[in-house]
């Protein structure tokens, strides 16, 4: 009887292992990586084994996904994905929403955005969607005005009114926290702000409104939308347990989409 029970248990364990899915999910540093690690913990008992792969920039994760090195990625908002598909021809699709991380303006020199000096240096991301997002934030604050019709991807060339004659420094998004030493302000994505020790709630001198169109998403290759790992991944991400984790850990600097 003991041997039979042991055999049945072994077969059950083998069946569970056979049913388990192993997937690689690409993320950017900071909250996307931290949250996906928690998603992996929640999903593991349900038979989904997630290996979190961290990338240091915004360019490589979509290429790695398109090349088949990942099953999914979680680091970008919709406008960024749309621009990548347009520019690089990726056959990638959104399978679910994740979080919103309001972009902030930071400074080592100023305590109020109204203190921006004449001819001040403003560091912004050098990719079209996040650079455009930074400029739209400045427009919302009444600091600059942009040409009509530029949508979500304006560039410094689209600035039509610039009363302070601000100079724009376009830098890799990951390098923006380091630019605080040289620029008057830097407009930084929340993941890179958090990774560099900045607290969006206490350190930012201005923040994007929470109702912006930049909700982040989980992305996979076209054709994998109904893969067996998709539903358990989204169930784990959209679970009450993960929502509580995000609210407690980030205290409002990262907002959930569900």
TrEMBL record:
Swiss-Prot/TrEMBL keywords: Lipoprotein, Membrane, Palmitate, Signal
Topology within the bilayer: Lipid-anchor
Keyword Manganese: no
Statement: the UniProt record of this protein carries the keyword Zinc-finger: no
Main localisation: membrane
Residue spans crossing the bilayer: none
Alphabetized SUPFAM superfamilies for the sequence: Periplasmic binding protein-like II
Signal peptide per UniProt: 1-20
Places the protein is found: Membrane
Gene Ontology cellular-component terms listed: membrane
Family statement drawn from the similarity comment of this UniProt entry: Belongs to the NlpA lipoprotein family.
Full protein name: Metal ABC transporter substrate-binding protein
